[in-house]
Design goal:
binds S-adenosylmethionine; alpha/beta; Rossmann fold; 8 helices
Length: 312
């Protein structure tokens, strides 16, 4: 905890005695690359969509012109004229190219009993599934969890999309950890049909989770725009890790995984490249013991341990 933040590496951070969590500020790829193989028991991560850039393409047509700048068939001279330019959205290709090396690292750092939960939306999930099948192997695909909610406007031009998709992969289908007994049970929809004892115990969730979004007011709300509900992330931590395990979120945002992990006695490693996210986490974890913040460039942004303050 007294280590110079400028020189602390993610490998060192993981091994520190008594440390309950580390928040690392920087691009996740080089940080993941420094982490030891098989050192993490659970990854929950929720990447941003739309990381790519707009591409602009100019359409040209060539016309015959003795004074033109290009020579073509039979030595004829031509010149190019611009007939239009088209800006198009190339975000998706960029997005997969952005995700792939990070998911390869995610696979490498997972322990033999480890699992990856990748939180996506309906536009990306199918492509990400193919990508992960290639990285983990199809036999390592465990589930697609649907998180269904009911919030916001409803288009009348199609079925209003009201769910997120969470792909679950395991490092080794023979050895992965999954403990349903640790998962909080949920009420039966028709408790009158199952008898009082069962109704009191509740039932196990399936792969379809009805859960509200983060309430717009209330203690849980951090103000970070893409914050995910603690109830969703807590359930993942309960099922797929044990007390004392190390859990990782390399697109950490407001640090929801950190809060769930701390509450349930798991160590956490969180990474985010957005200073605002790190500031939100600093505030969120201000009352927690043994949580350390480390900056990638301590000269530019020195993050103060445990104090919840970011100094420029
Ligand atoms: C959808 S948000 C995560 C929200 C989070 N699950 C929560 O509950 O608050 C995605 C996060 O990824 C971060 N991010 C995007 N690209 C990154 C990169 N290359 N390295 C680290 N973090 C990145 C963004 O700053 C953003 O906070």
């Amino acid at each position: 905890m007294t280590k110079d933040l400028a020189t602390a590496s993610p490998g060192e951070m993981q091994g520190d005695d008594g440390e309950r969590g580390v928040v690392y500020y920087g691009d996740n790829l080089p940080i993941l690359q420094e982490m030891a193989s098989r050192s993490v028991d659970l990854i929950y991560t929720d990447p941003p969509f739309n990381t790519g850039k707009k591409q602009a393409r100019t359409q040209l047509r060539t016309v015959q012109d003795p004074g033109g700048d290009r020579t073509g068939f039979m030595g004829q001279r031509y010149r190019s004229i611009k007939v239009g330019s088209q800006a198009f959205d190339d975000d998706f290709d960029d997005y997969l190219a952005f995700l792939e090396p990070r998911l390869e690292e995610a696979h490498r750092v997972l322990s033999d009993s480890g699992s990856l939960y990748l939180h996506l939306d309906y536009r990306e999930v199918h492509y990400a599934k193919v990508l992960l099948d290639g990285i983990f192997g199809r036999d390592c695909f465990l589930n697609e969890v649907i998180w269904a909610y009911d919030y916001g406007g409803r288009t009348k031009r199609k079925w209003p999309p009201k769910h997120d998709n969470i792909l679950v992969y395991v490092r080794d289908p023979e050895r992965y950890h999954f403990n349903v007994d640790d998962v909080e049970r949920i009420p039966y929809m028709a408790p009158g049909l199952v008898g009082p004892e069962k109704a009191a115990r509740g039932k196990l969730p399936t792969d379809t989770w009805w859960h509200t979004i983060v309430p717009t007011n209330g203690r849980e709300r951090t103000g970070y725009p893409t914050q995910k509900p603690l109830g969703i992330v807590r359930r993942i931590v309960q099922a797929s890790s044990r007390p004392g395990d190390t859990v990782l979120d390399f697109f950490a945002g407001s640090g929801t995984l950190g809060e769930a992990a701390y509450e349930l006695g798991r160590r956490f490693v969180l990474i985010d490249e957005n200073e605002e996210a790190v500031a939100v986490m600093a505030k969120r974890f201000a009352d927690m013991d043994a949580v350390r913040f480390a900056g990638r460039n301590a000269r530019q942004h020195r993050l103060v341990e445990n104090q919840g303050r970011v100094l420029s």
